Please model this.
Amino acid sequence: MSYMKIDGVRKSFGRYEALRGVDIDIAKREFVVLLGPSGCGKSTLLRMIAGLEEIDSGDLIIDGQRMNDVKSANRGISMVFQSYALYPHKTVRQNMEFGLKVAGLKKPERDVKIAEAARILQLVPLLDRLPRDLSGGQRQRVAIGRAIVREPKVFLFDEPLSNLDAALRMQMRVELARLHRELRATMVYVTHDQVEAMTLADRIVVMRDGLIEQTGSPLEIYRRPVNAFVAGFIGSPTMNLLEARVTAVSGRTVRVDAMGLTTEAEVEGPPPPVGARVTLGIRPEHLDGRTDAGHGPALDIIACERLGGVSHAFTRLSDGTELTVQFDGEQSIAPGDTITCAVQPGRAHLFSAETGLRL
Amino acid sequence: MSRRFAISRTPGTSLHGWLWVAPTLVFLVVFVYGPALANVRYSLFSFSAMSTSMEFVGLANYARLLDDPIFLQGLANNALYALISVIFQVGVALTLAAVLEARIFPSFAANTFRSALFLPSILPVVVVGLIWQLLLAPAMGLVDQVLWEVGLGDWSRAWLGDPDTALLTVIMVSQWQWTGYIMALFMVAIRAIPRDLYEAMELEGASGPRIFWNLTVPGARETILIVTIITILGSLKVFDIVWVMTAGGPNHSSEVLGTLMYRAAFRDDVIGYSSTIATVIFFIALTIGVVQIKLQKDR
Amino acid sequence: MADTALTSDQSLPGSRFQAGEVLNRIVLWAVFLTLSVICVYPMIWLFLNAFKSTNELFSASWALPETWRWENFSTAWGYGISRYLLNSVIVTVATVAIVLTLSSMAAYALVVMKFPAKVAIYMAILGGMILPPEVSLFPLFKVMAATDLYNTYFALILPNAAFHLPFTTFLIRAYMVGIPPDLREAALVEGASEGLIWRDIYLPLCRPILASAGLIAAMGVWNEFIFALTFVESDSVKTVTIGVTSFAVALRADYGIMMAGLALSILPILATFLILQRQFIGGLTRGAVK
Model:
């Protein structure tokens, strides 16, 4: 049952087409993340939902009502900006109060709502401070508080965590997830950070060049990316995408070889002929690296990143193709070492070399 | 991220914005542009303030201007005014500003000098004119008394009563009033030049004048251009200081376009002719404005 | 700190340099001291002589008064200075209020809104900066006479406002460009109208430039001469600039009282300047550099 519907939405700025026909159905209480690289149109889409950009064509429907020509304020949305957009000359309380005043709420009602939001977000001791006296994380919470008090039908977030440092970002991620559970609210969240998308979303919408590439739950997208772009965009470190050649086909099982790295994969559509060139996708965590020889092709380690629990080795095949391999953190590896590796069975993805689509 | 494509900040182009600029535009049309255009029209007529009919005379008023030695004198006086003002308010003021910003003086001294030199600019021009009239008055005035005291009694003269000195005296009073103000403007401009550029030059052992020419002047270029334009425009429309100190006299020696225009309209009641002078001011100002826009575009 | 260290290092190489340096400094001190005296002394001279009798003035105008004739000031006050000052205050306050309101509205629209002919409109507003008031003087006089505005406060307030609008709009617009557009968008999403955003968000954030622009306009209006000379004639509406000229003419013979009058007319502004030098100079020079 769709609560918010984006139907064939398009937008151009002059000759540049920012959105080239986008459809999304969002259910009530769903947390949807719009994910994509810079310039993919995700922020534009969010701003169109907010009413800050006009919709050239297509429909925006929220809770059964067509919103294209409705003023922002009457769309039942709240928005949290990347810059927080707190009013610098108003205290935390006044920041949260502004929208309520505009809506004509009486003082006692406003106070109740502000108190409730302040409690949820632990802002009570900060209510009389000015934004400039707050830390980044506190400002972020005020911005969310300002959105909460209006009790919107839909929350919109525009890269809300990108101005925070790594530790705080993690903390706010957890906080946002808790908030979503607690408020049972519908949220649309824009980010270019796939970790935020994976951890927060009920559903991810991956966008590129004004089009939707794939929509699905985080695990669906991780496990079954529909094309090489999505495959490369989700997961950290990014998926290895190698040029490979089909060496054998039996039924839907295709055997491929990329510079000595061989594996089998099930294809969904018609299998490619033997000898065809395909793109082989393997996540670093799905490669078994060994320090002894004979396990697979030889790889020279160029650099290592030790994260403690796991280590990432950035390696090169004999022809110079780069390959990232994940090791257990205990394994002792170092740049200059030569390793061999093999693909874990059933973990390879095959994409068309021409179109990038999943085979 | 995709902000850079968000050229339009809000939905739609609407006429709503016009309502917001309309009051300002109405003011400008009614009190600035409208009258200025009416003035150009008036310059083609011959009439007096109280007359009910206006006689169309074409360009006769302009022809008359060219034959009017007083007008030509006034024009030349404006030019001299502009020239001396540019020398003082751009050249001298910039030099003074550079010295005050060079940290040669302790900061309290630099601040005091700045305030002292700035002081005349806050006074009404009229009051400045009257004070200097008194200061320059023969016998009673401070200037004369000082000259006698230091043995330069020969130099004593009726500064404002002598056709040879009247205009120059008025011009110098203007410089007295405005040089400090422009200096303070330049100090702001110089302060905006990155400090480490100065330090780099000092480390290389560059001399003060060298730093001035190679760093301060290019760094304050924009402000220099604007100040030059403001100064020239100011000299073009100068009126009050002259009106108060000499009223254009003696014998029209210190006449400027402003005083000529005013006298023609409100004393001699030859409105068409007055409008013609005002139109000349209008076109000179317009030319200067166009030149400024061109210069700024070239940057 | 580091700067002083650097400059003192700088003067090290060779004592020959240092001698020149010292001489330079002495000359510069002398120049600036002289200039400061030239700029400030006329004011002191005016105030000292305002206490003198005319005879005393002629004998030695730089000396201290023999007796301090405070009555010169009360006499001058009695000639109507108080009324002129009041008129100036009324005209200045009204003009500045109009100018700040209208130009901040125009600047707001020019910065945040989209509408047809925006660039042309901005140019038209800026163009007002180059036109000298002289050009519009007689036609304005005609309008004033025809509309009964002549010889009222409005005859001064309206044209003064018009001639200050362009620069003020320019200053405020330049400042508003620096306010993040997100603030307005956040407010729009919250349901605020443009009017409310202008009043409740942009104006408070523009306070520094409003103060500056207001001060610049106030100084201009307070010192304005040609409109006051042309559009009013009664003492009840004359501003102080015109007031002192008529006053000076009336008191040609009585210099002490005349100087007391001049001194009184500039006292308010002089006192403000002396107390708030830094703010004053800062305010009047803001906008010099973009």
Observations:
- The radius of gyration of chain B is 24 Å.
- Confidence is low (pLDDT under 50) at residues 1-10 of chain B.
